[in-house]
Amino acid sequence: MSDAATSAASSDSPRRGRVAPFVVLTVAVVIAGLFWILILAKADDAAETSYTPLLDKPAPAVRTTTLDGATFDLQRRKGSWVVLNFFNSTCVPCVREHPELVQFAEQQDRLGSAGAELYTVVSTNDRESAVAAFFADNGGTWPVLVDPDAEIQVAFGVSKVPETWIIDPDGRIVYRTISQVTDDSLTSQLADLRTVYNQVG
């Protein structure tokens, strides 16, 4: 290598050494920014999927029967807090959620008339016999509503199961979540809604 080439190479080497940390830092900043965008996107998706134009509006009319053949009319439940849980016996989050709903229902039963009423709405692509067998095996004595023509799911705009809705004593929808709930989360949410309802009322 000539003296000129050697001199050029040696002069480039410190320059490359100074540039390398800036390149690494730039790449790190870009990656961190991408992660932050993904986090925000997931948060926005969760907020959007829980939104419903039915919020603070009267709940859709629901007239159907339970698995055991009893009639059910949501309008006749005014005066009570009502929790509707949309369910499918083959849905893994629904299965995981079920023990929590059993605890929630037992707790609300102990409150007597002050407790909320829990109802399960069976997904249209589930078999009633499978749902009955699931409840027999896993507990849960609250009413299970059938929805053979998907009228209830369409009226509420259910996108996927599990979904849980809360309706206040005036028959207005005050809460919706498209995710697995727990006894604690549902109890806490209901307590907050009761507080707001009593303050407004």
Describe this structure in words.
With 201 residues, the protein is of the alpha/beta class. It folds into two domains: 1-50; 63-200, Glutaredoxin. Helix content is 51%, strand content 15%. It has five helices and seven strands, in the order αβββαβαβαββα. A five-stranded mixed β-sheet has the order 5-4-3-6-7, covered by helices on one side. Strands 1-2 form a two-stranded antiparallel ribbon. β1 (63-65) and β2 form a beta hairpin. α2 (92-110) crosses α5 (183-200). The protein is globular and about 45 Å long.
Work out the strand percent: 5-15%
Q: Please, what is the oligomeric state?
A: single chain
Can you give the mean pLDDT?
83
Secondary structure: helix percent: 40-55%
**Which CATH top level class of the largest domain fits?**
Alpha Beta
Low-confidence stretches: 32-49
Biggest pleated sheet: 5 strands, mixed
Order of helices and strands: HEEEHEHEHEEH
Shape: globular
- Give the termini distance in whole angstroms: 91 Å
